[in-house]
Write a structure and sequence with these properties.
Elements: H1 17-21, E1 65-69, E2 79-82, E3 84-85, E4 88-89, E5 100-107, E6 113-119, E7 122-128, E8 138-141, E9 149-150, E10 156-163, E11 169-175, E12 178-184, E13 196-200, E14 204-205, E15 211-219, E16 222-231, E17 234-240, E18 250-254, E19 258-259, E20 264-271, E21 277-283, E22 286-292, E23 302-306, E24 311-312, E25 318-325, E26 335-341, E27 344-350, E28 360-364, E29 369-370, E30 376-383, E31 389-395, E32 398-403, E33 424-426, E34 432-437, E35 446-451
Antiparallel strand pairs: 1-35, 2-5, 3-4, 5-6, 6-7, 8-10, 9-10, 10-11, 11-12, 13-15, 14-15, 15-16, 16-17, 18-20, 19-20, 20-21, 21-22, 23-25, 24-25, 25-26, 26-27, 28-30, 29-30, 30-31, 31-32, 33-34, 34-35
């Protein structure tokens, strides 16, 4: 498949990885202040003859909403089963109006898997295995990491494998109920003479409808990675393996990109340069290194290993996770979540830091997620707190705990454990989604949970 993983997706978890995946059950406190509206103040009673005592105000319902769960009916037939592939959870992006695009494995259905869009409390089918593809053929599957991308208007982009058509792989875009091909295998790859598209990693969308994606190209017997941007109907190469890297050396391997207003961000391995790899941005033809392995980290230490998955917002800020070496002395932290803005890098959360809501950060999940407006979210394991794992997000008041095992959703069900390598997707206006199990019901069912935009 497209792309070489220079850093394992679970690398940030280190030895504490299973503490992120296996939570201890219900939290002692069912809810924190960040998830509740104000408890209010009892109204001043009017004279009995004119108005009865209204009593104390009731707390608002918890904002967490269940998008889908194993066993629920799925549009198009059958029911939802799981929302990941093997041991991988698949991020489910959310946009500014609270729409959620998600992948699901199905049971008792004619299709084994599909992509869906949740809007105004109802899910609809975008594409399913066996469904038709423009230009001929049918969808065979959604690749090994079937992560969709979603923008503000509800457009969804995704990678798919195809059977029975002229192409075997494609990047597809869905909007208003119609599918369109962005790129397909066998087609000429612009900017790389003699090369053709071979296969694709999951794409990224921005709110203008542009699409960025990582492709494996075939040129004779050679294969190489390349990142492309499709904007206003024009497909152009951003960077390819073998191209010069900023600061020296050349790109050897590329990770799947993310895309904001007009800037592409990606992680990459570099050969022959001063650093073995790092995080880079591309705006037009201008490439810039955001951080490199071996760079000094803020507060001490050296960036030793950087997450493959990164985030970018419309202001050009870049979020990433990293392990640190102790080059800065014994006081340096071992790793954390970082944000780069205007050429400066600052920590969002570090291992050993106090965690909002209690305890200290013990490990971080797959990677932080950054929305177009700068909303950032991540999953972390906690030592000495009310629970073992929680979702955290930045907002006007700083970093806050949003949800964790034992918390109650609007329908009364409670969040159970988080799966192995749990992922979170941040959206504009503080919205986010994550996967968990449900602690109520006949058994532990996988669930996709939404914290709606505008609640923090």
């Amino acid at each position: 498949m497209a792309g070489f993983s220079p850093w394992a997706s679970s690398g940030l978890l280190g030895g504490a990885g299973r503490r992120v995946a296996i939570a201890a059950g219900a939290s002692a406190a069912l809810w924190l202040a960040v998830l509740w509206a104000s408890m209010g103040t009892p109204p001043i009673p009017a004279p009995a003859a004119t108005q009865p005592d209204a009593g104390p105000a009731k707390p608002a319902a918890p904002p967490l909403r269940l998008v889908a769960a194993g066993g629920m009916p799925a549009p198009g037939g059958g029911s939802f089963n799981r929302f990941g592939v093997e041991m991988k959870t698949i991020a489910a992006p959310v946009n500014t109006r609270g729409d959620v695009a998600f992948f699901a494995k199905l049971m008792r259905a004619s299709a084994e898997e599909g992509l869906f869009l949740w809007h105004d409390g109802q899910a609809s089918l975008i594409a399913a295995a066996g469904g038709p593809v423009p230009g001929g053929g049918t969808v065979a599957g959604f690749t090994e990491r079937p992560t969709p991308s979603l923008n503000a208007s509800g457009k969804v982009a995704f990678a798919a494998t195809i059977e029975g058509g002229r192409a075997s792989d494609a990047i597809l875009a869905w909007s208003g109920g119609k599918l369109a091909i962005v790129a397909q295998s066998g087609a000429r790859a612009p900017g790389v003479p003699g090369a053709a598209f071979f296969d694709f990693a999951p794409p990224a969308l921005n709110d203008a409808g542009d699409t960025a994606f990582l492709a494996t190209l075939r040129r004779g017997r050679e294969t190489l990675d390349s990142i492309y941007l499709s904007a206003k109907g024009q497909l152009a190469k951003v960077v390819a393996a073998g191209d010069p890297a900023p600061g020296g050396g050349s790109f050897a391997a590329l990770a799947a990109p993310v895309l904001a207003a007009g800037t592409v961000a990606f992680a990459a391995v570099v050969e022959g340069g001063p650093t073995p790899g790092g995080v880079f941005t591309a705006e037009g033809t201008v490439l810039r290194q955001v951080v490199g392995a071996g760079n000094v980290a803020p507060g001490g230490g050296v960036f030793a290993r950087i997450s493959e998955h990164v985030g970018i917002d419309d202001a050009g800020r870049v979020a990433f996770g990293a392990f640190l070496s102790q080059g800065g002395g014994q006081g340096a932290r071992r790793g954390g979540v970082f944000l780069s803005a205007d050429g400066a890098i600052a920590p969002v959360a570090l291992l050993g830091d106090p965690a909002p809501g209690g305890g200290t950060f013990a490990a971080f999940g797959d990677a932080p997620s950054l929305a177009s407006d700068g909303s950032l979210a991540f999953i972390a394991a906690i030592d000495g707190g009310p629970g073992t794992t929680s979702v955290y997000a930045t907002g006007p008041g700083g970093l806050k705990r949003v949800a964790g095992p034992g918390d109650t959703m609007a329908d009364g069900q409670r969040i159970g454990d988080f799966p192995l390598n749990a992922s979170v997707a941040a959206g504009p206006r503080g919205g986010l989604t994550f996967q968990s199990t449900l602690s109520s019901g006949d058994g532990p069912a996988e669930a996709l949970v939404l914290f709606p935009p505008g609640q923090r």
